[in-house]
């Protein structure tokens, strides 16, 4: 029987890239995200790769909706074998002006939702003695940058939670790992490039070179497919001993 994966935030960016590679490899996919064409994306990929797909636009700010999202995955696909906590948002501001509502929203979506989704998936994974939880953290889960107080806090939190889940999951063949990418060219980052270009009066190319990729030794965006292939390895049946780890795909940023 094919395995099923729930990927939060999979109707855009990194999540969509991960979903596509998992579908190519025969996984049934529960798509999730707020994009208006989410259902269409799910059905097109399902048809293209001949796998079962579902779609939900559950709001990750709502813990009950996250529980329902996990139950819907089991109802529609028959099980939840792999959970990829990928959805996330960003907001950049000096701490003194950082709006409290944005701080709380980032902590809720980028960190608390990882806890609620893992908790909801737990009984299913424990019962079937198989589970793979993959958290998309960030290089900001192990390094800081100024003006990103909420994001850096949430992403560090996710790395900590990853380790706890790995320890608790070990007796049940539930593994948990975090992937920590550097900059990836997705809508989340394209918006930042535009904002920074305006703020610093630079061209978008100058922003990419002088600001965004400044801390990466390799001056290239991290390809989405590289992240997706890493997730595929972590989800594999044979990957029982890879757990509690953070995998940095950051062009050498954290080597310094
Ligand atoms: P993206 O903006 O392309 O996609 C984010 C997804 O999350 C979308 O599908 C969106 O609908 C969903 N989402 C946002 N708020 C939600 C909410 N309240 N309820 C339900 N869904 C919600 O972003 P991306 O760049 O693909 O980022 C994906 C993950 O990768 C995030 O966790 C991000 O922090 C992380 N990341 C991104 C980069 C990068 O450079 N792009 C680098 C490191 C880590």
UniProtKB/TrEMBL annotation:
SUPFAM superfamilies: NAD(P)-binding Rossmann-fold domains. Belongs to the short-chain dehydrogenases/reductases (SDR) family. NCBIfam families: PHB_DH, PRK12429.1. This is 3-hydroxybutyrate dehydrogenase. One of its GO terms (biological process) is monocarboxylic acid metabolic process. GO terms for molecular function: 3-hydroxybutyrate dehydrogenase activity.
């Amino acid at each position: 029987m094919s395995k099923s994966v729930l990927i939060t935030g999979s109707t855009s960016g990194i999540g969509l890239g991960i979903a596509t590679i998992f579908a190519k490899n025969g996984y049934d996919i529960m798509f999730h995200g707020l994009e208006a064409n989410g259902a269409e994306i799910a059905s097109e990929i399902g048809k293209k790769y001949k796998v079962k797909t579902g779609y939900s636009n559950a709001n990750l700010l709502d813990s009950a909706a996250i529980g329902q999202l996990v139950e819907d995955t089991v109802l529609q696909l028959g099980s939840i074998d792999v959970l990829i906590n990928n959805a996330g948002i960003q907001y950049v501001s000096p701490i003194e002006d950082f709006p409290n509502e944005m701080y709380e929203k980032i902590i809720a979506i980028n960190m608390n939702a990882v806890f609620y989704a893992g908790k909801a998936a737990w009984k299913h994974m424990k019962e079937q003695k198989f589970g793979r939880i993959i958290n998309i953290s960030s290089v900001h889960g192990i390094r800081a940058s100024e003006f990103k107080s909420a994001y850096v806090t949430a992403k560090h939190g996710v790395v900590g939670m990853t380790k706890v889940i790995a320890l608790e999951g070990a007796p049940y063949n539930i593994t948990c790992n975090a992937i920590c990418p550097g900059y990836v060219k997705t809508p989340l980052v394209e918006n930042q490039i535009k904002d920074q270009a305006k703020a610093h009066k630079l061209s978008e190319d100058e922003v990419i070179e002088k600001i965004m990729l400044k801390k990466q030794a390799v001056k290239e965006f991290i390809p989405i497919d590289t992240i997706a292939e890493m997730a595929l390895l972590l989800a594999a049946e044979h990957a029982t001993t890879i757990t509690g780890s953070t995998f940095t795909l950051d062009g050498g940023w954290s080597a310094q």
